[in-house]
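Hey, I was hoping to borrow your eyes for a little while. No rush at all, and the record is pasted right below:
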Amino acid sequence: MTASPYETVMGFLVGPWLAQAVRAAVDLSLAEHLADGPRTAAEIAEAEDADPQATARFLRACASMGLVAYEEKGFAGTELLAVLHHDAPMSLRDLAASQSSACLWLTWARIPEAVRSGESQTTQALGMPFFDYLAAHPDEGALFGAAMTSMSAPVIRDAVEVIDVAAATTVVDVGGAHGSFALAMLARHPGLTATVLDLPHAVPGAQAAAVARGLDDRLTAVAGDFFETVPPGDILLLKFILHDWSDDDCVRILSNCRDALRPGGRIVITEIVIDDHAPGIAPLMDIAMLASAGSRERTLAEFDDVLTRAGLRRAAATPVEPPYVVIEAIAAA
């Protein structure tokens, strides 16, 4: 049966409850507790030092969302809950925790003001620009970095398969956080070495990730600012970077990347490409970026515009995990 307009809009309005319930499921480690079979609310409450009655009520709410199911012996995890397990192949655990945390939640509460002004609301909500806030709150910064890594996983999986490295020996992951893209490229292509460039607070995470993957002999993490300079390389990766910035800022970043290209090199941009009739998450992400960064998701024509202004031209555009596209750019003649 098709939902009525009233029911549909009510579904929109309880969205904040759903997001915070998922965050609470992560905080209580429900996926981990139920991985080996059903448990009672009392058992979960004891393991988490939580109120037993409130835990039972919360599990009832999770059952209504399909995260858990009623069993004779208690509550069992579902396929939806399994996605929140820390060991899931495409785990959303870190993303669920980050997306519902103060650094984003407080900003998105000001979406009406963002639409009226056309400007970021982060300073009004947090007292400072977004990345300054993450640097000043390292715990949230680490969580945000882990969330972006998990959100990137399916996109990176597809992107590494379509990037031609035949003429390359060096890759630079520009603003690469924990270096997940660079590490995937190294794992796929044994002949490559890589540099991850990011702000100082992100460097230890990239170094630790390289050690964990056994690739620290081929990856170097350096602190820097892509508005100032970018290390030289054959392939420069820009994943989920340009949507954080205005057109003028994108031109500065891309100009520095152009200057860092070795002869025959390419800039590989992995971003959402939006259009006026885009379904799904892309238009919502566009408004989230407006509120949090005063920036935007872009159409292919808008990407072409900032590329041209930076002395570059688009050489290819390959769709990967929807709604993402891998755009390859080279220096203009």
Notes: The chain has two domains: 5-89, 152-276+294-331. The radius of gyration is 21 Å. Residues 5-89 form a domain with the Arc Repressor Mutant, subunit A fold (CATH 1.10.10.10).
